[in-house]
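Can't paste images in this forum, so I'm doing it all in text. The chain is below; anyone willing to post the predicted structure tokens underneath?
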Amino acid sequence: MGVNWHDAPQWFRSSFARAARGAGATATDDELADTAETLVDRWSGEDRHFHNLKHLATTLHRVDELAQETHAPDLVRLAAWYHGAVFASDATVTYELKGGEQTLASAELARKELTALGVPAERADRVAALVDSLLRHQPDPDDVDALVLNDADLSMLATEPQHYKTYCAAVRAEYAHIPQVDFVRARIRILERLLRRGPIFSTPQAQPWEGAARQNVEAELARLHKEQAKLVASP
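Text version of the structure:
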């Protein structure tokens, strides 16, 4: 279920305004509030079961935890705000493994809206580049800001097993219109690609999350492989 603006914690509005001001925004307080409200509305779509305000809040909190490792924490916070601002789970993008957060479109939205708020062009471009770094979760190893954003976005993988099951169910709900056999096949490919890239987390402060994340992902993969075998064997 979507979340109305009036139901959202007040800190969403102030969080965006602080980050935008820190990035150099010259817009009025009302203009910043209007943009924050529009973003909250985007994150509150009825089709968002995992990629919603809760995920946004978690990502922002994780960025704050890792902020001391960044060069430009406010730009990373803005990238967190925009990283899933554009979302799609329709069959066309899903079968191309491009479902969920529309990274490229979200990056362009960030560039457009932040520039309109008076954020200097080079900083708006930098936020867009940070959003782009989430496309395959393979950031430049020398880009500490991108590393922090990626670690914050993937932090849900390191939750307790029961919470991880809830996360899996929420992701499945976002693709409820996709046949189970197709969903399982795509999910396996995504998780295997994630594990092949090496360590899931890149920043020193996020390293303690690695063990729990790998256990969760490997357990999900084992379950999905068993389910896939049953689905293939079914008449």
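Confidence is low (pLDDT under 50) at residues 1-5, 95-99. The radius of gyration is 18 Å.
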